[in-house]
Amino acid sequence: MKIAFEANVLTYPHTGIAKSLINLIRHLHDIEIILFTSNNKEITQNLGFSYTFINANLGGGGIENIINLCDYVHYHWNGGILSNSNKNILMLHDVLPLILDKNPIRNFKYKQNIKKQIKLAKIILTPSLYSKTQIQKYFKINKEIYVLPHGVEHIEQPNKIRGDYYIYVGGYDARKGLEKLLETFIRLDKKIIFVGEIKYFSNNFKALAIKAINQGILKQSGYVNEIELKKLIKNAKAMVYPSKFEGFGLPPLESMALGTPVITTPFSSIKEVCKDCALYFNPDENNSLYNTIIEFEKSNMKEKLIQMGLNNARNFSWEKSAKKYIEIIKDSM
Length: 333
What we know:
- By secondary structure, the protein is an alpha/beta fold.
- It folds into two domains: about 1-150 and about 315-330, Rossmann fold (3-Layer(aba) Sandwich), CATH 3.40.50; about 165-315, 3-Layer(aba) Sandwich (Rossmann fold), CATH 3.40.50.2000.
- The protein has helices at about 15-25, 60-70, 95-100, 105-120, 130-140, 180-190, 205-215, 225-235, 250-255, 270-275, 290-300, 300-315, 320-330; strands at about 1-5, 30-35, 50-55, 70-75, 90, 125, 145, 165-170, 190-195, 220, 240, 260-265, 280.
- The strands form three sheets. Strands 3-2-1-4-5-6-7 form a seven-stranded parallel sheet, sandwiched between helices. The protein has a three-stranded parallel sheet with strand order 8-9-10. Strands 11-12-13 form a three-stranded parallel sheet, with helices on both faces.
- Strand 11, helix 9 and strand 12 (about 260-265) form a beta-alpha-beta unit.
- It is globular and about 60 Å long.
């Protein structure tokens, strides 16, 4: 079987969507892989698997040639389908803009675009049951939506000796709850490392970040490679993930697989992924995170959280996801 993957997301610094695409492809066995872009950018990173690269904007018939070459064409970045073909696979990670964006014009345009993507897709995938229910809530769909969870690469033994810091991994975005996170850690006078693209989404968040940096509380590492990321997570006291709105929530799951406790919220897809294996707080309650960190440090729950997290992470693997992916494709034939 030959599958082409639209890979525009791989021409930018790594996001969770890029990581999920790379890991899914790495675990597809006996599949010939074509990666194509439509943004005139090249893929410069080593992806760890062999593939043929095609620039869809340069000669050779463009997307029509790619369709003719392949059994399926997979679009992983919440849309961007380029043709009306019965070979299109759409990974729709979430429809969070319809939940979060209150601008009616942007909301309408987004909804029209997703309607078009759904219509053009033969197979629709989403990473969580939560996302599936939200897609069904906002769109009338007469085709199956398959839940294809993300996974983890390996389960690793936890570090016995850890650093004196907590860690957050993910985007700098208002929906992630980072302002309240920084306020809480400044109040606690405890260290935290942020991993991800450094981007100040509000003046208040920027002011909090500068204050936390000046007080030795916050360190911003920006993007790091996978080896460094694992090291930072394994050495942390805990992963703190204050987001309320996620289509899946990969960083908490990856932290569990590395033997690091997780402190997060019970909203959207997060509890679906983390089960009862994390320590939960409510970001809408002023002292909830503060009290949860205090409880975490004083109690003897750390080892229990580590073992529960490791057991939970064993339920998710990229090998399982890739196997299910092929099964879905075969069922649709």
